[in-house]
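Problem: given the chain below (1008 residues), write out its structure.
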Amino acid sequence: MSQLRSLAGALRSRSQWMMGHVGTGKRVFNPRRDCSSGAPEPSLAACSSSYVVEMYYAWLEDHKNVHESWDAYFRNAQASGSEESGEKRLSALLQGRGQSQTPAMSQKVVEDHLAVHTLIRAYQVRGHHVARLDPLGILTADLDSFVPSDLITSIDKLESYGLGESDLDKSFQLPLTTFIGGNESTLPLREIIHRLETSYCGHTGVEFMFINNMEQCQWIRQKFESPGIMIFSDREKRTLLARLVRSTRFEDFLARKWSSEKRFGLEGCEVLIPALKTIIDKSSEAGIESVIMGMPHRGRLNVLANVVRKDLDQIFCQFDSKLEAADEGSGDVKYHLGMYHERINRETDKNITLSLMANPSHLEAVDPVVQGKTKAEQFYRGDTEGRRVMSILMHGDAAFAGQGVVYETFHLSELPSYTTQGTIHVVVNNQIGFTTDPRMARSSTYPTDVARVVNAPIFHVNADDPEAVMYVCKVAVEWRNTFNKDVVIDLVCYRRFGHNEMDEPMFTQPLMYKQIRRQEHVLKKYADKLISEGVVTLQEFEEEVAKYDKICEEAYTSSKDEKILHIRNWLDSPWPDFFKPDGEPKSMSCPPTGLSEDVLMHIGSVASSVPLKDFAIHSGLSRILRGRADMVSKRTVDWALAEYMAFGSLLKDDIHVRLSGQDVERGTFSHRHHVLHDQEVDKRFCVPMNHLWENQALYTVCNSSLSEYGVLGFELGFAMASPNALVCWEAQFGDFHNTAQCIIDQFICPGQAKWVRHNGIVLLLPHGMEGMGPEHSSARPERFLQMSKDDPDRYPEFTGDFEVQQLYDCNWIVVNCSTPASYFHVLRRQILLPFRKPLIIFTPKSLLRLPEARSSFDEMITGTNFLRIIPDNSPASENPEKVKRVIFCTGKVYYELAKERKQLQLEEDVAIVRLEQISPFPFDLIKAEVEKYSNAELIWCQEEHKNMGYYDYIRPRFLTVHHKNPIWYVGRDPAAAPATGNKFTHLTELKRFLDTAFNLEAFKGRSF
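Solution.
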């Protein structure tokens, strides 16, 4: 701040400044424009002294002459009501007295006090850069290797502020933007520096000055600057020590018993366990009843044991080889599993439910899943402010900085339909990835910088200072409860062993691991500290250790009992009222999915009207509503109306329906219009679906951010909370689900096999070759079918309902409906089934408005059901023995085939059978169709390329049904891209395969 020395020379009379700079128009000073600082609050260090003085005089003339941040600064720095000149008013405030001074004295007072104020701000902004955060003492928590020049680290640097050693014992007036004085308004400079270093440069580094909210910044300053605020009682210290004992000795016990097993232990960050328990204690005290947690594998077993309080014998038995892969749900390793547990919190004597979500090795993939489940629990409890349910997310430093789903999840944090009212993020900062140095792993200063995008405060803390960690955890809980915003705790620690216990870290980080081998364990350091303070005795400490060791040994003995080897003990989202006590469905049948005509008519009437009075809708939408009313009067439905019927009927039965995705309120193809917007009144809208019945369930339809990975994970988590909800995610185009492939591959497809996790989420994926290019054509059905687990070479045998039994055995259901009625029935079947499976629906685009693609009420009334296949109903079906060819197909291509058949007048020679449900494959119905047309050759026709679509899936299954008759392929040739980008080429390909499909001579001479 040497620039401040020129302050005296920069002073000028008020009138001179106004004449020279205001003149015919005002110039509003803005620190973002006029200074080099990018900080949202004033930064004197970044502005020249002349600008500061000019802005001050401009502010005296009119407070609007300066940016609002400088207005707030000058208001805080200046006493109100005085009529003295600007110079005297400022100097009087800073000096703490009101008498006039000589010009020379005034200049010096202004300069020194501004310098001290700037110094205070420098610590608030950048103190975390010099905080002692690394327990090893060899690295910095950030990637800046220099000490900020505007921080005082030695007396000689006082000169950079225009101050000297002689000023250390002078008292200075403190600004209102600091709390270091406590009840004192002035302090000696020496004490100011000492208190700033204590607050911002100790074992805690507070990163918050980027937050553009003065109230929130002041709140944080008070929590960290107030003198003597970080004080713990002896009881709290003893509790902290006992929790450290459990955390440390648990890892020691596993290392002794299973020295050659991977466990991804917590060594080097044992303080995580007392940190989480402190967060949970403080949250329970504030009224939280349920905490949903997500974390990577490091430390998971310890969290399960000592935070969630899973029985130790259940954990130890997972190391036993007797747990066979054939056991349902044992398809994942122990450090990926989750847990749900309701217990009494001993610190508050209140019930609390803890849920740790299962997670694959895609470390951050669980983040949106946790948020979705949290949102669902808040929704079902009516907890609109997040006072009863909250989430905690744990991260590794490398994954937190490197994986994009972290950003996607943060961006959901304050969206109305996705917010969970604040999440506490705990980063276990190993200061290294697997073997990768942070300098090679991220471009940001800290691994936590991504959190700045939502103005979340970041508390960096040395993990070898347990009391500092506990204080930060308490502040984080208070922040979340006060402002309902995210907060990040960066536990700067180390990893005592390699990436896992079998890894050798000395290969790549020799110097770090030489220091780690010399590093004293945090438990010993803290125990010695408390013993020296007289808080505990050595004997008490040793007894605490022996007590927990005994607990572990007893659990180890009981873990040998084979009776406890049951994976259902690891459920993270149980539905106790939905299944029987043994986890089986309460029935194995599905009632009819049709509705009475009165219900259909009522829903149709509401869907074609505006329930609110004096509500101005768009003229184009008026035509759409009139069209719906006309369809209802004719007892027909199109795709949008069929969806309306399905959703509305479920709401009547108290089933919550949630539809989420990009632009789903209107629909990408402008077909849905579930939210009506008043054309005259801003932000006035209507959701007619919520006006169907008096005591209906709520319908939630919400446009999402432009995210697939994060939002699909969120909706998956939402669907986990309750089986009595229809949760749908719609991709803008089915092609775009590929950016959410991790959620599909790791959670949706194998969730039940890995974690006994039933889930009824519905994926709506617009699909169809419409000549719109390779990015807007294919939802990649081949990928879903390849991951379906039904055996292509075995004809299933069931004693009960074939359809329901087959659905129960599958891992998900894949359908491509060709009629609105099919879509209506499959949505209702999804809820009426006695179990839950993910449902993948390839939804149409052109069929949304195709006149031929409409259904009659007769296909939806009471007694009707979802048809897994739709048999041919042309003249060919009346004389099946004369049929020469049967074309099997699915989806939109049926209408093109039917049109071509009619033009060629082959309705007696060619039958067309539609597969509405592709997986699980309808063996029984296909067998009946093949036997019905016993003299016909079989064709599979699809619009997708041969190496895509359905052919590779259906071909072996057709052979299993009837091995004597092969099924021939008709469609596009193999290709690398899912569609051509040329409209003419698209139409040429379509004509070619339609010609082939009806060329009855094409397969003559082939040997069957």
